[in-house]
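Subject: mismatched residue count in predicted assembly?

I count 924 residues in my input, but I want to confirm that the predicted structure covers every chain. Input:
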Amino acid sequence: MSTLRNVAFVGFAQLPVVARDEHRMATEMLYPVVVDALRQVGASRDDIDYQVSASTDYMDGRPFGFVAALDVMGSWPARQDLHLEMDGSFAAYYAWVKIQTGEVDTAIVCTHGKTSEGEPERVFNLQLEPYYHAPIGIGPTASAALQASAYMARTGTTDADLAARAARNRAAGVGNSDNQVRDAASAQQLQGSPWAIEPLRSGYVPPIGETATCLVMAAEGKAEKLCDRPVWIQGVDHRAELQTLGSRDLTRSAGTALAAKKALAMANVGSARDVDLVELLSVTPVEELILLDALGLDAAASTPVVNPSGGPLCAHPIMSTGSIRLGEAFRQLSGRAGDRGVAGAKRAIAHGAQGHCLQQNIVWVLGTEKRWA
Amino acid sequence: MNETEPPKDPVRYIDSNVYLPYHYVAGDYRAKYLRALKDKKILGSKCSKTGKVFVMPIVNSPESFAPCDEFVEVADRGIVTTFCIVNIPVIGRSLEIPYVAASVALDGADISIFALIQEIKAEDARMGMRVEAVWKPDGERQGDHEDILHFRPTGEPDAPMESFIHRL
Amino acid sequence: MKRPTAVVGVGQTQHAARRADLSIPGLIREAVDRALLDAGLGHDDIDAIVIGKAPDMLEGIAQPEQFLVGALGGHMKPVIRVHTAGSVGASTAIAAMTHVASGLYDRILTVAFEKQSEGNAMWALSPNMPFTPPLVAGAGGFFAPYCRAYIQKTGCPPHIGPVTAANARANGARNPYAHLREPMSVEDVMNSPVLWDPIRYGETCPSSDGAIALVIANEETAKKGPRKPAWIKGAASYAEAMWVPGRDQVSPSAGKICAKHVYEQAGIQDPWNDIQTAEIYVPFAWFEAMWLENLGFCDEGEGWKIIDRGEQKFGAHLPINPSGGVLCSNPIGASGMLRLGEAALQVMGRAGEHQVDGVRNALGHAYGGGAQYFAMWVVGTEL
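Triage response: the counts match. Full output below for your records.
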């Protein structure tokens, strides 16, 4: 494994996730978050070399909606910039790649988008191949339910199992003031909730929220100046699979398994069991089980701790959710996670995903120590 | 329909109509601006660092990166800094063509707005022309964009190019 | 840390108003298959896919790269989707190059496309932005006022737009892939209807279906052949805010800053003489004069004179858009990569009938947004 530049997450800011922010447009929500992120690291906008933003036009309900983000990200004088039509975790990946070239040392990675302005089930139905899939009218919850059905049939996982997983996330999410859902719920209560789309109950799927986020990344040499406890990227990889629902085994996330294998190898970490916590972009308990499986983790084990933040079940601002997984891992490893901190945590896995039935996955291995000497 | 035989011609196209409802938030800044139009006031937001004024109001000045947290009133008249004459229709719009779409630098504002110029023959439009807002009559204004019907020439002498060429 | 990179394969589609013979996956495959064949590589040689396109409303599919993973050969590979408005094709190619320059990847397949005949392009580009008066009528309606300002400021005579447009068509006639290839005289342009004064129909880009794919690779792959590569000597993508008081929308600073950065990287000190041809993003004829200035080929106010003297024609000192440019083919998402890809073809000596003689360095350029996004590269025959 060749030597790479050590790059760290040095700051993370977000607005608390809410169902609908009645006071601000999507890009207006981003401004205070960028200001906060820069304040955290003690930098001015001019100190940051690179910017990447992530959002989707269809969720914004307007083409070119992301252009307005340039103003609130401080794009004056002109900045080296890129925008991806992807979840924030992938934007952070590109920033990492850019920093590896040595052309830049620092970057901000921003996400924005008001899910409340559109109807996500309809909007994301349009992600599907337009001839056979989209006309069926399935949205992401329906496709997740298809995946859940298949998974439960293969593994014998029961409704009660899903309720227990969901309850665990809800309990973890109680103390996290950035979550949209902050009340605990028992497995019994969740199992008693009506079907959203069978076999997924409404208690197993999150309400959709909105926020804005900003991650700050920096290379070795700068990172230490911007953060007392930088969280180093030790390994990372991402993979896409075919979208066609009938063409892949929906009960397994082959992409996550491959991405994890490569990320762990880059990090020189034997297995996911060697990390202290994982933050998964698991929108439902079934996705959580599939992802744990793909990571080679035993769902029944108590370590690593899974979704100490409460996970996406407590806050799912679509397209920002991946950035929040990174942000939570950053908070955990830099000692900024308060009461939900996993004691003595030195390594974490942060996962990101997008597309129906976990079509694209990214796995990050993060740690308190630099990977390369 | 005969289910037993394949169609004689292969299927070449499918029509797919997309229907997506969106329910947008104006945001406090835009809402304040729109409501003030009811009172024939045009508001801008002022940069807390440089004092520059932005119409329509924005939350921060990208130049200074400082917040714009104060609202000030600007004039309802200004200069056409540049313009074009539109000759083609757009789906869903009822403006009579040709029409003059102009960049107007209102007196007191540091950026320009895009506005419709009427009460003029399209070919008489000029850069530097002074214009004023034509408001909907009292009692008819609702606090939305249509409260300003359009801008029209005031008849004052044109502004010299140096005064607006940097305010396009 | 930053490793040398090169374009080792180029493949583009036959651009047309409507490619009714292909679906979107088919359009992509036409470009991808040609690029891989050109590079002498197979899908197994490709480490990752970087794909770009303009607003998804143009085809009515959200994030279409997701259903296109198969057509891209992207199954179980990293796939990244870029979207930077009109400049997207170029910023996508540059993002792909960055992947290789980082040392993390050896060979990237990068694709840009648009099949806008499948949607309603005019509607998709004229959004009724909420809480904003609906005035802008297409991209032309937005840019026409700044073309007017350029004409006023510089005293540019009225024939420059038509001359530029006629010349673009003459170039398109030499490019078998171009959408518009029929010659058009200066008189034809002058007689065409005015769409957004001062922009005429004849000075306006078409709406096209099209795609282009490039294979960008590391030094080792590039030196192995089979083709002479186009070395990427400098590349950057920049963006600037909209609401800056006094922002120059005729010669935006982001364009100047981006060009300066790229020229410095590429060792270009005198663009007019160090660069032998340039593919620049001209969707409306007047922009050619404006960009010649913004890109430092001449002093401010002098761009139109280059056109007046015919110095940008094919065979003259600095042929601009020998492919015919955006005025001949505009599949919006692809146009930026077409500029960068055509620049590469020129350096590789493979532009066929529209090959410029003696090219050592070529510039590929694109812009987008309210003239806020700029992405460009300089490719050369030598590392």
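Chain C touches chain A through 60 residues (CB under 8 Å). Marking this ticket as 'not a bug'.
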